[in-house]
Amino acid sequence: MRKIPATLFASAIALAFAASANAQTTPVGEPQPVMDPTQTTTVQPTFDELDVNKDGTISQSEIPAEHELNTLFASYDADQSESLSRTEFDSYATGDQEEEAE
Ligand SMILES: [Ca+2]
């Protein structure tokens, strides 16, 4: 039986180790990426961004015309005050993204 040179033996171990280390880099339970590429095109403004005059409510005139909340405004204006409180806006913001939340 031939004696295996120590250097060859060491490199064989190194190879095996590298192979197993490489296998371990495959993510098993990778957390969801913070940046969702599908959301970069439709950035949802926050309550504070929409509350332009900082009176604590969002009136319809503060909502950009192209924003979907402009159309949905009445349905989320629960107390029909013609402005959205933070609570009313939250029900829009959280409800709208419910299917994305995980
Ligand atoms: Ca306001």
Automatic annotation (TrEMBL):
Q: From the UniProt annotation, give the residues forming the signal peptide.
A: 1-23
- Which keywords does this chain's UniProt record carry? Signal
> Which InterPro entries does the UniProt entry name for this protein?
EF-hand-dom_pair (IPR011992), EF_hand_dom (IPR002048)
Q: Where is this region: Disordered?
A: 24-44, 76-102
Per the record, the domain of life is Bacteria
List the Gene Ontology MF annotations in alphabetical order: calcium ion binding
Q: What protein name applies here?
A: Ca2+-binding EF-hand superfamily protein
- Domain called EF-hand: residue spans: 64-99
